[in-house]
Specification:
The complex is a heterodimer. Chain A is mostly helical. Chain A has a domain of 243 residues. Chain A is built from 15 helices and two strands. The chains are: A mainly alpha, B mainly alpha.
Amino acid sequence: MSLITQTAARTILPAIVLAGAAALVMLLGQPFHERVAYVFFTNLIIVLGLQVFMGNSNVANLGHIAFAGIAGYAVAILYTPVALKAALIPGAPFGLDNVALGLVPAILVALAITLLVALLSGLALSRLTGVAATIGTMALLVIVHVVLVNWVELTRGPRAFYGVPVIFTLPWAVGAAVIAVYIAKLFRESQDGIQLRATGDNLLAAKAMGVDVERVRLKAWILGAFLCGTGGILFTLFNGTIAPNSFYFSQTFLTIAMLILGGMRSVSGAITGSIVVAVGFEVFRSLENGPVILGIDLPEAFGLTGFFLGAVIVLSLTFRPMGLMGNDEWEDVWPALRARLAGRREGRP
Amino acid sequence: MDYFLQQTLNALSIGGEYALLALGLAIVFSVMGLVNFAHGELITLGGYAMYFTLLFAGPPVALLIPVCILGAMLAAVAFDKVAFRPVRNAPPTTGLLTAFGVSIIIQNILVIFVATRARPVPTPDWMRGNFMVGELSIPVLQVLEFAVTCLALAGLLLLLNRTVVGLAMRAAAKDFVAVRMVGIKANRVIMTAFAVSGVLAGIAAVFIISRRGAVDPFMGFIPLLKAFVACVLGGFGSLLGALVGGIVLGCVEVFLQVVLPPDIAGYRDAFVFLLVGLVLVLKPEGLVGKRAELGDKEE
């Protein structure tokens, strides 16, 4: 079986889980739940984008949200109707207040811009390793944020950019997420992915075996940026309103916590972590508002969700540094378990 | 000329503040390879130590200064004991992300139990005035800041050069195993490194808070970013580099503020971080560092 069909087979299980969850929400849930589920799927796509680079290369990346921001703002500026833009960003640079593209061209141009930024930043960042690389990615996030906040004529600055047409619904997000899972799995098992994982495990050994470290890192960086950009576009065309703070450190915390808890080394880890953290996040969000549980009126406690994310990061790194999934994909769990049980029966350790 | 002098003083005082913070980051990094993302929270916790002391005890305002420094120092030692010890032997990325998590936790604990809104903290009157030198009116705070930075540096040099634990810290930066082999407890060296970084952050916090006049849960974030920049400019982990990087960053910021036309002055931080990227790629050992031969530690 070729890698392409093999990966497709390995995507069936996550596809069923994700589509099943979405179907349940659509059948049983209220519009509010559907909204939460949609945002979950956009976050999942971003986490998968993060996994492609960070998980395989073992280089902590704090800059991935920058790509969601670039793509989100690009599609918002390109796709919002001219009449609305005349009020929002009159006299925008490049005459952008007088032009509005169709949906597909707007998305394609937004992705092209994102990929261009990814290529330029990746050429520099792929040369860095360890702490320097992490600080470099953080520098990227800060730079993009500063530009979004200060380029008032184009982005409305710190104020929200509203009125972006709402296009997508939950099924679209599910479809995109399943494709993203497929892409991330395909990359992980491809030659580039295996080489990149080797550089993450032991850089010197990988170099000695002839791995072109910068090239495989650059490929993963660009692919990850593509997925993060897709997530940003999906979010923007659903939410209708974005602001520079939608794409800054709090979003970074959330997605990093998801990836770390699940285990960044496997695609299934990204999915698992996204699900667990998203559920926990919603629980803590409802606790934040001071609900009445079992007749006890709890006080309002803003900050609980942030506390939860921080605790997830610290506790999982302390007690389970490889995350819930470790090196395994979902389909690896059962054979691994069976092998271990069989080994125990035969008296092997 | 007056203008030039005033801006120079400005650059030196800001640069001194960045240098204090960057030195704290660099000491911890050089000893145990941890990029302490929670360093900014030391400033915040020092500030809240002042706020709570004032709220519950109401001492003279000048007494709040040692409270702030002590608070930051204790917080640093506590971070080490509670959060960083379990990940001490993990890869650097794990430590960095753990510190990142600690920082979020501290911020949100303060949001939950105090408030998101800023709380006022007074500073002694004598820190706020100006004094005259000839025609020039010079803020006391800026002179004080630069002077205290120099004093703190002198103290740090004494500690590093004249005490056993200081020697052990310098040695640990090169080879921790060898330090332990001669019978020095690793915990003590690392705890001292954290305590020193806390004291330096506490001193910086006094000045940061006297400028702002208030504390809030997220106030440590921007200073932390600046300290990172200073460390990168000087070469991460080098103490001399952190000092030079801090002063250079202060000068660059003031220079950009003066030179940039008002309509792009908002992009100042983007330029600063672009500079960071350039240094990382073109001169990863920093402006004053030398390329070290790391052998099998090379990443």
